[in-house]
Amino acid sequence: MSKLETDPLPGADRLDLPDRPRRLRRLDSLRRLVAETRLTVDSLVYPMFIEPGSDLERPIEAMPGQSLLSPDRAASLAAEAAALGVPAVILFGRPRFKDETGSDAHSSDGAVQEAIRRIKDTTPELTVITDVCLCAYTTHGHCGILDGEQIDNDRSVAAIAEVALSHAAAGADLIAPSDMMDGRVGAIRQTLDDSGHPDTAIMAYSAKYASAFYGPFREAADSTPAFGDRRSYQMDPPNAREALHEIELDILEGADIVMVKPALAYLDILAAARQRFDIPLAAYNVSGEYSMVKAAAERGWIDEQRVATEILTAISRAGASIIITYWALDFARGH
Predict the structure, then answer these.
(1) Rounded CA separation 46/35 (Å)
(2) Domain for residue 203, yes or no?
(3) Predicted TM-score (pTM) of this structure
(4) For residue 187, which of 21, 155, 161, 223 is within the disulfide window of CB 3.0 to 4.6 Å?
(5) What are the pLDDT tens digits along the chain (335 aa)?
(6) What is the DSSP code string of 244-303?
(7) Does a structural domain hold residue 246?
(8) What's the number of domains the chain is made of?
């Protein structure tokens, strides 16, 4: 018999503690009862990649579990999302053709516009959000119209507002400009109001950083820049105060929801935005964050479901009321 068994530590049986936090951790049901952050499917948005055609579903190699979908297939998957309780989807489009100005982005019969109509016809209760940008539609892969090798901000804003209008006319509920051009939220709001769509809301990518976490998405959307990068218009990762300034500008221009993107490396930005602003705050759990977990899970290094839930909980805990995530359907099926 050991000495510890015969001679307990002095005072070990009579600790007089004012508080014992472990009491509330004993049972799973008790932990659930006192949870400070409650992650539910109600806060999740599922992204979908739309390409022209019909009856098409092509797996995206860099994003296991995700596919390029034709509008009809997108409508079927959107109906499944709604049946699982997911309240919204966000659509990203591929064009029929690319040109210098991304003109196919505002075509009334483009893949995204057709997908909007099909989804609203089959699942009208589902909120349809559309990403508005030119990068996937231009030959150069940048988010606006070029003047030489520089973005012409104001010409780009006019084109982006035209794309937003085409989405609203097709039935989109929320317009989400992701280009990071100065003044685009105000221009979209004015265009929508003047064209008979005052109830179409705007979810602005307000603090979108020039991040290395977007790599898998660029394969999916075929939107890698042909030259240079996007650091002249997307935010510089070291900057935090600038993010709050960008968010404030978008709110003043008429944004109904603001967003921080990516999520995991910018939880401090989310928390600061939540403390300062009262409007709904979204965060994008981006492709690189998703694909890294998938790759590790495929090798058996981590438990994907637990890690994904922990990531989404962290994003919610930091202050996001809306989370765009490729795990939305998996989370809904598991809960």
Answers:
(1) 25
(2) yes
(3) 0.92
(4) 161
(5) 555 555 555 555 678 888 889 989 999 989 999 999 999 999 999 999 999 999 999 999 999 999 999 999 999 999 999 999 999 999 999 999 888 888 899 999 999 999 999 999 999 999 999 999 998 899 887 878 888 878 899 999 999 999 999 999 999 999 999 998 999 999 999 999 999 999 999 999 999 999 999 988 777 766 666 665 667 788 999 999 999 999 999 999 999 999 999 999 999 999 999 999 999 999 999 999 999 999 999 999 999 999 999 999 999 999 999 999 999 999 999 87
(6) HHHHHHHHHHT-SEEEEESSGGGHHHHHHHHHH--S-EEEEE-HHHHHHHHHHHHTTSS-
(7) yes
(8) 1
**Residue 180 belongs to a domain:** yes
Closest listed residue to residue 159, CA positions, set 176, 180, 149, 145: 145
Beta strands per DSSP E along 155-250: 174-177, 201-208
Q: Which long-range contacts (CB under 8 A, 24 or more apart) does 225-233 make?
A: 225/135, 225/140, 225/141, 225/142, 226/139, 226/140, 226/141, 227/140, 227/149, 228/142, 228/149, 230/142, 230/143, 230/180, 232/150, 232/151, 233/143, 233/144, 233/151, 233/179, 233/180, 233/181
Q: Catalytic site residues? A: 208, 261
Query: What counts of helices (H) and strands (E) characterise the chain?
Result: 12, 12
Distance CA 158, CA 176 (A): 15
Task: Tell me the torsion sign for CA atoms 127, 133, 139, 145.
Answer: positive
| CATH number for the domain that contains residue 123 | 3.20.20.70
Number of residues that make up the chain? 335
Q: Could you tell me if 25 and 31 are in contact, meaning their C-beta atoms sit under 8 angstroms apart?
A: yes
CB atoms within 10 A of CB 57: 14
17: tokens are: 């503690």
By residue range, what is the domain housing residue 172?
A: 38-227+240-260
CB distance 319 to 281 below 8 Å: yes
